[in-house]
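Bug report (template v2)

What were you trying to do?
Predict the complex of my protein with adenosine-5'-diphosphate.

What happened?
Run completed; filing so the output is reviewed.

Input:
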Amino acid sequence: MALEKHIRKAVFPGSFDPITLGHVDIIQRALPLFDEIIIAIGTNAAKNYMWTLEERIAKIEAVFKEHSNIKVTSYKGLTADFCKAENAQYILRGLRNTTDFTYEQTIAQANEKVNGVDSVFLICSPEYSHISSSIVRDIARNNGDFTSLVP
Ligand code: ADP
């Protein structure tokens, strides 16, 4: 109840197909800001994923198994609705460049206006700005070595 209100909870939404060092960097740097972080895999029936939902969840759980304040789950529908259901006041996102910023800006503004859910952005560390899940998938599809990009 009253106590619950003071818990600072953030949802870190994404596809995590797969989780990369870029995601891990953002999550680790956000840990001091929140009491709890929910890593939430949005599921979209129209999307073709390379790794199954179970594989993606298992990988993320393995990375953060020492952290009792990090939860891993999946959700359907709007991220803002999921945040409300979880009593999470914040959405956490990482920004690599202006393309990310332009994409995130209107979504964050709409989430705040329509649902009262605010977004917190961390700019990725420079050594990770070239990393994306889609690059990892490209390398994987062509039997390349992507181990330096993932945890
Ligand atoms: P989505 O499908 O929503 O883009 P992703 O799994 O690709 O989900 O990314 C989830 C979040 O992680 C997004 O905020 C994205 O900008 C961020 N992110 C992805 N790659 C990096 C990176 N290399 N450095 C920092 N943030 C990143």
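What did the reviewer find?
The chain has a mean pLDDT of 95. The CA atoms of residues 12 and 92 lie 5 Å apart.
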